[in-house]
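Appendix C reproduces, verbatim, an entry submitted by the partner laboratory led by Prof. M.T., so that reviewers can inspect both the input and the predicted structure.
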Amino acid sequence: MYKMVAFPSQNAMLRGRLYLPQNAARPLPIVIMAHGFSATIDGMVADRYAQIFYEAGLAVLLYDHLSFGLSDGEPRQHINKWIQTRGYCDAIDFVTTLAEIDSNRIAIWGDSLSGSEVIVVGAIDRRVKAVVAQVPACGHEPPPDDRDGSLFQAIQDTLQSGDFGTAAEDVIGPMPVVSFDQVGTPSLLTPLTAFRWFIEYGAQYGTNWENRAAVITPKTPAPLHPGLCAPHLQAPLLMLIAHHDEMPGAVSSIARMVFDACPQPKELIELDGGHFGLLYYPGELFTQASRAQCEFLLRHL
């Protein structure tokens, strides 16, 4: 169904799976996918979405973020949104070198933290022709005012050529990603639903997931808020959000605000099930979400 591939990003190699349908006409449209906060590509349900897209005739690149899972990068288990966002751009660079891929039909997919990152990439990289943002972690506050577009320009300049991997403005951790005891063992993600999902899926054998991480926020001229990029989105958007998202960094009202700021064409789907409902397989919400995503991608690619 897939072969293992690697491509360079931030002086390291990102590693993942390349799915190439065998009986489809070449060159193929492709969906580039990376998982959310600390999650990996093996057995944590992003691979199930990739399989659905593959079976529909779409090529898929599903990879682990820098310093997580199969990918290289030191120090390990460091979450830096700027580096992860840059990783999507480097993944686009990689797939455009592949003879089997139509470089004019590239989509990007993200869940949770990565869901916010794909909105940024879709606003900056004109090669992106469709964006799927699943329960995007758009933060707990609206973006700062940017009527003159200067903050967006700063994001674009920093992402394309800036230094966002060394000087840190804020570091949280390393500490557990999830914990059932916030008093005795506090964790980065506090809702009980996060603990249940990560332990059920991440703790399985062979996922390469580790229950520890550090969150790095580098010093940059502008914050990497998807709301600053939303008005500049250059590709059709499908956003799926939870009616009442329990994750502090994925407030539903902020996600809706970001969606409202995006230009047409765009589609919004609101579902029950909280932040992790779409990541239970098999499940009714997974089926509903994957079907809608597949139809959206086939229409726009």
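The chain has one domain: 2-300. Additional entries are available on request from the coordinating office.
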